[in-house]
């Protein structure tokens, strides 16, 4: 059998074992296993590395445990903004997107840009229009924003307010 | 951030990265993920790379391309190049870094300075591997 392989990551963070319970650890591992399988299945059928990495990343974009797609972090305005890129090592073609808000699978938009666009990187509403023109799925905030990420964002906002109220922290 | 690198039966490498950025980031801030050679890079001759961590550090260090350059021009192994990229300019560029890389033979390397990186690997005819902590 010819060699094929896939590897994935779901983010690196400074986290202590005491900050993560067994249930969440297992959920992370299940999510990683699902993403690996999605990519491996493509390769096993003779599919391309490009399609395999897209499939693996799509799986994690759907899983709210990971910081991409559904369940991603919120900006200071409490909105989602996604970045993604995909590169073909054979042709050196690349597709990338920045600050898109409504594209369900930003990595799939990046792949369409790689395949169909004269440019490498599209951002914001232009990227979203390109997604629409290529029949990619768009979703609203109710799909992307999870209670956990909303809470993390609210905590940050509360900390900012408290910091401003603290004597000695005022600047003129 | 999530990412993947792969080698197919035709010997082609690819890399992909997707992210939601940082909690409370400024509207319009774009991180390393879509910056080619910053957070994502692939070249069949050498390797495919996907990064995670603090985007500004990864962009300033051009870390994905550094893994490629250290292998191609300095002759480092995949593992050595990945580990060196994690430490590169560490005195000036401090922050969380994680790098996933794969060479043209399908070998994989994971590098991170956080103690925790969600990760996995599966090669043909091998058992899948997933891990979270550095000790795994």
Mean pLDDT of chain B: 97
**Broad structural category of chain A:** alpha+beta
Chain pair with largest interface = A-B, 83 and 71 residues
Q: Number of helical segments of chain A? A: 6
Helix content of chain B: 10-25%
How many DSSP E strands of chain A? Answer: 4
- Name the poorly predicted regions of chain B: none
Order of strands across the biggest sheet of chain B?
3-4-5-6
Oligomer status: heterodimer
Care to count the β-strands of chain B?
Answer: 8
What is the share of helical residues of chain A? 40-55%
Q: Main sheet of chain A, how many strands, which sense, barrel?
A: 3 strands, mixed
Q: Major β-sheet of chain B, in short?
A: 4 strands, antiparallel
Summarize the helix and strand pattern of chain A as letters: EHHEEHEHHH
Percent of residues in beta strands of chain A? 5-15%
Radius of gyration of chain B, in angstroms, nearest whole number: 14 Å
Rg of chain A (C-alpha, Å): 19 Å
Shape of chain A: globular
Average pLDDT number of chain A? 94
Q: Output the number of helix runs of chain B.
A: 3
Secondary structure blueprint with pairings:
The complex is a heterodimer of chains A (172) and B (136).
Chain A: E1 5-12, H1 22-44, H2 49-62, E2 82-88, E3 94-100, H3 106-116, E4 121-123, H4 124-133, H5 141-144, H6 147-165
Parallel strand pairs in A: 3-4
Antiparallel strand pairs in A: 2-3
Chain B: E1 2-7, E2 13-19, E3 40-43, E4 47-53, H1 55-61, H2 63-72, H3 78-87, E5 97-103, E6 108-112, E7 116-123, E8 129-133
Antiparallel strand pairs in B: 1-2, 3-4, 4-5, 5-6, 7-8
Helix pairs in contact in B: 2-3
Question: How would you explain this protein's 3D organization?
Answer:
- The complex is a heterodimer of chains A (172) and B (136).
- Chain A is of the alpha+beta class.
- Chain A contains 6 helices and 4 strands.
- Chain A has a 3-stranded mixed β-sheet.
- In chain A, a hairpin with a 5-residue loop joins strand 2 and strand 3.
- In chain A, helix 1 runs antiparallel to helix 2.
- Chain A starts with a strand and ends in a 7-residue tail after the last helix.
- By secondary structure, chain B is an alpha+beta fold.
- A 4-stranded antiparallel β-sheet of chain B has the order 3-4-5-6, with helices on one face. Chain B has a two-stranded antiparallel ribbon with strand order 1-2.
- The longest helix of chain B is centred in the middle third of the chain and has 10 residues.
- The radius of gyration of chain B is 14 Å and the shape is globular.
- The chains are: A alpha+beta (172), B alpha+beta (136).
- Chains A and B meet through strand 1, helix 1, helix 2, strand 2 and strand 3 of A and strand 1, strand 2, strand 3, strand 4 and strand 5 of B.
């Amino acid at each position: 059998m010819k060699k094929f392989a896939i590897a994935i990551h779901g983010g690196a963070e400074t986290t202590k074992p005491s900050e993560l319970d067994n249930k969440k650890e297992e959920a992370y591992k299940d999510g990683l296993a699902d993403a690996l399988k999605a990519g491996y299945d493509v390769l096993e059928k003779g599919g391309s590395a490009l399609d395999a990495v897209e499939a693996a990343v799509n799986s994690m974009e759907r899983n709210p445990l990971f910081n991409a797609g559904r369940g991603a972090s919120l900006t200071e305005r409490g909105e989602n903004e996604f970045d993604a890129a995909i590169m073909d090592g054979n042709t050196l073609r690349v597709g990338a997107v920045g600050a898109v808000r409504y594209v369900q699978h930003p990595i799939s938009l990046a792949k369409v840009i790689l395949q169909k666009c004269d440019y490498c990187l599209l951002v914001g509403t232009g990227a979203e229009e390109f997604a629409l023109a290529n029949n990619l799925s768009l979703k609203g905030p109710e799909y992307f924003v999870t209670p956990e990420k909303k809470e993390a964002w609210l905590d940050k906002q509360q900390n900012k307010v408290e910091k401003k109220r603290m004597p000695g922290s005022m600047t003129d | 951030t999530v990412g993947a690198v792969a080698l197919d039966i035709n010997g082609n490498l690819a890399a992909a990265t997707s992210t939601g950025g940082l909690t409370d980031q400024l509207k319009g801030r774009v991180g390393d993920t879509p910056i080619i050679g910053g957070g994502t890079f692939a070249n069949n001759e050498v390797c495919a790379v996907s990064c995670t961590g603090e985007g500004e550090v990864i962009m300033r260090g051009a870390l994905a391309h550094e893994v490629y350059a250290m292998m191609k021009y300095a002759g480092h192994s995949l593992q050595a190049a990945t580990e060196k990229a994690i430490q590169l300019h560490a005195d000036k560029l401090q922050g969380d870094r994680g790098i996933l890389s794969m060479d043209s033979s399908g070998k994989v390397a994971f590098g991170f300075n956080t103690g925790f990186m969600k990760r996995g690997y599966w090669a043909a005819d091998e058992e899948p591997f997933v891990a979270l902590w550095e000790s795994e």
